[in-house]
Design a protein that fits this description.
Blueprint: E1 2-10, H1 14-24, E2 29-33, E3 38-46, E4 56-57, E5 65-66, H2 67-83, H3 86-102, E6 107-108, E7 119-121, H4 123-126, E8 142-143, E9 155-163, H5 164-180, H6 186-189, E10 194-199, E11 212-220, H7 232-245, E12 249-250, H8 270-280, H9 289-294, E13 328-332, E14 340-344
Antiparallel strand pairs: 1-3, 1-7, 2-3, 2-10, 4-6, 5-8, 9-11, 9-12, 10-11, 13-14
Helix pairs in contact: 1-5, 5-7
Length: about 350
């Protein structure tokens, strides 16, 4: 049994809280809305088996949604990108976060509705949300938001583990960048902000090298790979900051190419992993060109060509890797000067 309370607070002391919060709550995590200067702390702990409660989670973002609503939302976002309408993004982000928080983010006390915190229930009912599994078969009148058969969500997702020893400085740097570009992360907040989940160090060959936070950032992606995003440089700088300044480890399934460049050098036991892999699969039957590139066995993952930085296929080193015809040029980061990002000039 578990007891969950979500608490929305100022992000003023986030850099001091981030290292300790995970040790205080067994299943706790943090969602940061940097442009709004707010943080949602999930106080999530084990309680005794005789605790009373039938709570569950049906997160709103994972529910089947009317297809027309999905189309309208995507079309609106495309228009905001085209017109560089950051103000509307920020307004919608504030409305969305307020709605989610005030309605319990999909948590329910009694299988029907959210009434108040704490929400108490069995582990299997509170650990994951899968409303789309039970979505109706209605000839696509409704769909999961990411269903490729409808014009719904289309996004990039970046997830990087940052050691707790570096977490405070990382948060401070992101705050500095946020202060320099106040509207630059409103688009991220439309995709549930910056989620930070706690993970333990592991002795596995490709395990976490120390206790860490998984920083999960989801953001708009154009269907046109040559079309830059609004405030593209802000997210790119955070991505490179996490990976290179703070030595972050990329999630193996939630990143763009650039995150895996030289990744095996970050694992103390990476060489041992490759030996075991070769022993168990000497013919490479369970490998592919992509996995060999990621593991550094056969070349690298960077694809250097015109516009390659827009999709994260490379880190820009020349303007042509961005979109100079659309006023996006390769420039240093604003806080992390070693970053090379596509900036609108």
């Amino acid at each position: 049994m578990r007891s969950i309370t979500n608490s929305l607070r100022s992000d003023l002391d986030l850099e001091d809280m981030v290292s300790s919060f995970g040790t205080q709550h067994e299943f706790g995590d943090i969602t940061w809305y940097p442009s709004q200067r707010k943080v949602l702390y999930k106080v999530d702990d084990r309680v005794t088996m005789n605790a009373s409660g039938i709570g569950n989670i049906d997160f709103m973002g994972f529910r089947s949604t009317l297809t027309l609503e999905l189309v309208l939302l995507r079309s609106s976002e495309e228009t905001q990108e085209l017109t560089r309408d950051a103000d509307t993004k920020c307004t919608m982000a504030k409305l969305q976060v307020a709605t989610l928080v005030n309605t319990g983010l999909g948590y329910k006390n009694n299988d029907v509705s959210f009434t108040s915190y704490p929400v108490i229930g069995s582990h299997h009912r509170l650990q994951a949300s899968g409303g789309c599994l039970d979505s109706p078969r209605d000839a696509l009148l409704s769909a999961c938001p990411w269903d490729p058969r409808v014009k719904g969500e289309f996004f990039h997702q970046t997830t990087i583990s940052i050691g707790l020893s570096n977490a405070k400085d990382f948060i401070i740097d992101v705050k500095m960048l946020r202060d320099m570009v106040p509207k630059g992360l409103c688009g991220v907040e439309l995709y549930n902000g910056i989620l930070m989940r706690y993970v333990k160090a592991s002795s596995a060959y490709l395990g976490k090298q120390e206790d860490a936070i998984d920083v999960d950032i989801t953001y708009y992606r154009s269907k046109d790979p040559m079309k830059p995003r609004l405030y593209e440089d802000v997210v790119e700088e955070i991505e490179q900051m996490a990976l290179f300044k703070y030595g972050g480890l990329p999630h193996w399934g939630k990143n763009r190419n650039l995150a895996f460049d030289g990744v095996m050098r970050k694992y103390a036991m990476g060489g041992e992993f490759l030996k075991v892999k070769k022993n168990y699969d000497p013919m490479g039957l369970f490998s592919s060109e992509w996995t060999d590139q990621v593991l550094g066995i056969n070349g690298g993952v960077s694809v250097v060509k015109e516009g390659c930085a827009l999709e994260g296929l490379c880190i820009c080193s020349q303007d042509i890797h961005c979109a100079p015809a659309k006023q996006y040029f390769c420039r240093p980061g604003k806080v992390y000067k070693d970053a090379r990002v596509c900036t609108r000039i």
